[in-house]
Write a sequence for this structure.
């Protein structure tokens, strides 16, 4: 009897851990793939035309941000479609409406998270992809755990252990390498794509803040449902607030938005939506199984995957500073996260 | 009460009595309340409990083998109790109903 129980416990644990690693790895692969459609969309019409048209009247910088806004809005829309399909398959529409109605304990956190996730992190990522490149955008965002843990320190007084601090330092050195490497060469030529760098920073800061906020609502709701609400929030921000405001200010948002419904652009956008939607879902699925720490650590391998996929599909080899910096960030995130995972059964409390 | 609230709220609410509960007791109660009969409903409710435990809101106290098949024959049954953190999060979410 006793042996039976022990064997079963081990079996259950093994099953749980291997499933958890599988989800985390799915997340990393999907997240890495996302940078392919994210980079390709910039050279497709109507976005290519849109960038050119607005650049003529308002300059490259403004045009880049406005075009990135429309791309991000479409990204949010296709992610939402993918998640609705996912919730349908899982039969979670009932839970979706139950959770939506709990504004005070749950939904407000998802909407707040979407403010930082959408118009800051994802917009920033698209800006970095458009102006510097997919590999830079992917690797720059690897800095997000630093922001997340500093926020957690100030907000809920979560301790930063020596080990976490060591990880943070490694990640920051990685970050300096990623940003500094390109900057030094560009400063020499006097042609610095500042907006791209700003986008990279926005991605890291936005995702760091989003993580800290979203955790508050996600721990008492179902992740599939919570994430859908977070993207519902983002769609509201883009399609009801930002896109109309940009249109009122005089940018031809709707003209180009309507043109996006052509096969090639639509296909790439849907590809972006599916990869991004499922990377979020599988990320959250991994947490209860292997712990937030390991889940995030393995999830961060997306940086590697992005660089590899970009190389395979576009043949681009990123600068050595991006490769070195990215490696440092991934090592740093493992140093930071693995300590927490020691107590895998309970993460808090 | 409870029926129109998200499932995890309801699970926490059931644990807020401070007693120890076996997962199969909670799962079958929720299955009945939310009309989620069948293996899929059962497993997804149980996963919610696992998530609450991994979030530090429930503590896994004890396991035994399901010999009779009251839940899933040959698998482990888990007994949980709410933690202090779970009480705080649970009453934040459920306070209007308690």
């Amino acid at each position: 009897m006793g042996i039976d129980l022990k064997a079963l416990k081990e079996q259950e644990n093994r099953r749980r851990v291997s499933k958890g690693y599988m989800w985390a790895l799915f997340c990393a692969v999907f997240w890495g793939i996302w940078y392919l459609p994210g980079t390709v969309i910039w050279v497709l019409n109507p976005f290519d035309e849109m960038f050119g048209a607005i650049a003529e009247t308002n300059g490259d910088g403004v045009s880049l941000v406005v075009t990135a806004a429309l791309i991000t809005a479409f990204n949010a829309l296709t992610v939402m479609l993918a998640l609705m399909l996912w919730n349908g398959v899982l039969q979670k529409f009932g839970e979706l409406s139950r959770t939506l109605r709990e504004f005070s304990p749950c939904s407000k956190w998802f909407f707040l998270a979407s403010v930082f996730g959408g118009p800051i992190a994802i917009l920033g990522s698209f800006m970095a992809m458009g102006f510097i490149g997919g590999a830079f955008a992917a690797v720059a965002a690897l800095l997000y755990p630093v922001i997340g843990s500093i926020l957690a320190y100030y907000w809920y007084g979560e301790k930063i252990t020596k080990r976490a601090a060591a990880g943070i330092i490694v990640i920051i050195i990685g970050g300096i390498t990623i940003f500094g490497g390109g900057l030094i060469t560009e400063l020499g030529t006097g042609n610095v794509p500042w907006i791209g760098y700003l986008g990279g920073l926005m991605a890291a800061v936005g995702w760091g803040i989003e993580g800290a906020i979203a955790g508050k609502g996600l721990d008492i709701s179902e992740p599939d449902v919570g994430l859908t609400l977070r993207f519902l929030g983002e769609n509201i921000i883009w399609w009801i607030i930002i896109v109309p405001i940009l249109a009122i200010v005089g940018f031809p948002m709707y003209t180009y938005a309507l043109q996006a419904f052509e096969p090639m652009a639509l296909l790439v956008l849907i590809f972006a939506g599916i990869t991004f939607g499922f990377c979020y879902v599988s990320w959250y699925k991994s947490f209860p199984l292997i712990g937030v720490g390991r889940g995030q650590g393995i999830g961060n391998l997306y940086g590697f995957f992005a660089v590899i996929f970009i190389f395979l599909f576009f043949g681009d080899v990123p600068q050595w500073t991006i490769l070195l910096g990215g490696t440092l960030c991934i090592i740093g995130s493992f140093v930071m996260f693995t300590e927490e995972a020691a107590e895998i059964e309970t993460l808090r409390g | 009460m409870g029926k129109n609230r998200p499932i995890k709220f309801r699970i926490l609410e059931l644990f807020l009595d401070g007693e120890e509960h076996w997962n199969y007791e909670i799962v079958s109660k929720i299955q009945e309340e939310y009309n989620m009969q069948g293996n899929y409903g059962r497993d997804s409710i149980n996963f919610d409990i696992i998530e609450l435990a991994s979030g530090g809101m429930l503590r896994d106290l004890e396991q035994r083998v399901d010999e009779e098949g009251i839940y899933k024959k040959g698998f482990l049954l888990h007994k949980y109790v709410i933690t202090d953190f779970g009480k705080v999060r649970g009453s934040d979410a459920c306070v209007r109903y308690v």
